Amino acid sequence: MPAIWLLAIVLCSAAGAAVGRTLHATPESYRALLAQLKPGDTLLLEPGEYRDGLPVHYLLGSPAAPIVIRGPAQDRPALFIARSRANTVSIIDSAHVHIRDLTLDGRSIAVDAVKAEGHARFAHHITLENLTIVGHDASQQNVGISTKCPAWGWVIRSNRIHRAGTGMYLGNSGGIGPFYGGLIEHNLVTDPIGYAIQIKHQHARPALELAPRGRHVTVIRHNVLSKANGGSAGPDARPNLLLGHWPLAGEGSSDEYLVYGNFFHENPHEALIQAEGNVAFYSNVLQNRHGPGVHVQPHNDVPRQVRIVANTIITSGSPIVVRTNEATVPTQQVVHGNAVFSPHPAAGGVQSGNLHFAFDEASKLLASAPGELALDPYPTSDALRCAALDPGLVHGMQEASCDFNGRSRAMNYCGAYAGHGRNPGWLPALALKPSTACRSR
C-alpha cells in the first residue's frame, strides 16, 4: 500500500477517535453544560452535592458516539440530593446516553431516582452503570429505576439499589409504555419494600418509526436480589422478581426473557420469582428459608413457552409451582434438571430429570458458608450428578453451556453448578456478582 494512502487512513482513524469533547462540570455549572451536549461528548461531574436534578431531556447521542454523563469513579462521589416534586434523573425523548458513577440519595422524599417520564415519546439505548441509589423509600410506589414511556435497548449494569420502595419498575401500568430488548446485569438490589425488579406486562407495541421491529430478548443475568428485610406483608407483599407477559399478538409476541446466573435471596412474604409469558429460567441459585421459590402462573395473561432448567433451589415453601390453562393456551412449560431442596415437591409443568432432596439435606450435600449466608450452594459430593442437558431443550438460551460460575457444563450435574468439591467461583453474597465470561467447552 502506498505510504500516502496509509497516512490518510491513520489520519482519518485519529479524527474519528477524536470526536467528542470532555466538559468538566461543578454543582454550579452542570445544568448549563447539559444543554450543550452533542454525540460523543462526555460531561464529567466533579465531586460534590448536586441539588438541582439531572434532566436528560432531548439528548441524542448515536450508536458510535453516545453522550456520556459520569461522576468520579473513585474517591468522593458526585452526589445528587432528591428534591420534592421532581424525579432526580429525568429522561425525556433521549437516546444513546450513558449515565454512570453517580450516587442518588432520595432522603425519603416521594420521588424516583431515575425515571423515563410517562409523557415522553421514547427513551432508548440508555445505559445506567455503577449508580448507587439509596433512600428512595417514602412508599412502595417510589422507585430506584423506572420507565414509563416506550423504552428499548437499555443496559442496566452494576448498580446498587438499597431500601427503595421498588428497586426497578420497567414498563408502565396497564400494559403501555413497554420495556423490551434490555440487558439487566450484575446489579445488587437489597431490601426493597415491594419488588426488587418488575417488568410490566405489555399490550400492543406502539408503532414508532424509530423503534426496531422483529423478535427481541430481554436478558436478566448475574444480579443479586434480596428481600430479607423490610418488605411489605399481606396484600402488598411482592416477589423479588415479577415478569409480565409480552404482547399477545403482532410485534413482540415472540419476545422472551432469558433469566440466568442470578442469586435470589430470601422473601418472608412471597415467592422469589413470579412469571408469565415466554421465559427461560436457568442456572440460578435460589434460597428462601421463609417461603416459596418459583411461581409460574397467570397474572395478566398466562404462562406460555416456559423453560425452568438447571437451577439450585433451596426453599422451605414450594420450590417450583407451574399453573397454567392448557385448554386456552396450548403451550408447554418444561421443568428439567433442577436440584431442589425443599419439604415440598415441584408441581406442574412437564417435569423430567430433576433431583429432589429434603430441605435439611442441603446442609449435608452443599457446603457451609461463612458470613451472613448459611449455605454455600456448591455441591460437596457427586450426589447431584444427572443426565446431560438436551441441546434441543436449551436452544436459544445463551450461555446455557455454562453454570452459575461461568464454567463449562462438561460434567453433568443437576442444578446451577457443574461440579462438586470446593466452590471454584464466586460465593453468593449480598454484593455485586463479579463479571465472569462463560467458558464453554
Give a description of the structure.
The protein is mostly beta strands and 441 residues long. It has a single domain (23-384), classed as Pectate Lyase C-like. 5% of the residues lie in helices and 34% in strands. It has a 13-stranded parallel β-sheet with strand order 1-2-5-8-11-15-19-22-25-28-31-34-36. Strands 3-6-9-12-16-20-23-26-29-32-35-37 form a 12-stranded parallel β-sheet, with no helix packed on it. The longest helix is centred in the N-terminal third of the chain and has 15 residues, at 3-17. The chain is globular and about 65 Å long. The two termini are 41 Å apart. 49% of the residues are buried.
Strand content: 25-35%
The average pLDDT is 93
CATH class: Mainly Beta
- Overall radius of gyration: 23 Å
Number of helical segments? Answer: 3
Q: Which oligomerization state do the chains in this entry correspond to?
A: single chain
Topology:
Layout: H1 3-17, E1 22-25, H2 30-34, E2 42-45, E3 48-50, E4 54-57, E5 67-70, E6 78-81, E7 89-92, E8 94-100, E9 102-105, E10 114-116, E11 123-129, E12 132-134, E13 143-147, E14 151-152, E15 155-157, E16 160-162, E17 166-170, E18 179-180, E19 183-185, E20 188-190, E21 197-199, E22 217-221, E23 224-226, E24 241-243, E25 256-260, E26 263-265, E27 273-275, E28 277-282, E29 285-288, E30 294-296, E31 303-309, E32 312-315, E33 320-322, E34 333-336, E35 339-341, E36 350-352, E37 355-357, H3 362-365, E38 366-368, E39 375-379
Parallel strand pairs: 1-2, 2-5, 3-6, 4-7, 5-8, 6-9, 7-10, 8-11, 9-12, 10-13, 11-15, 12-16, 13-17, 14-18, 15-19, 16-20, 17-21, 19-22, 20-23, 21-24, 22-25, 23-26, 24-27, 25-28, 26-29, 27-30, 28-31, 29-32, 30-33, 31-34, 32-35, 34-36, 35-37
Antiparallel strand pairs: 38-39
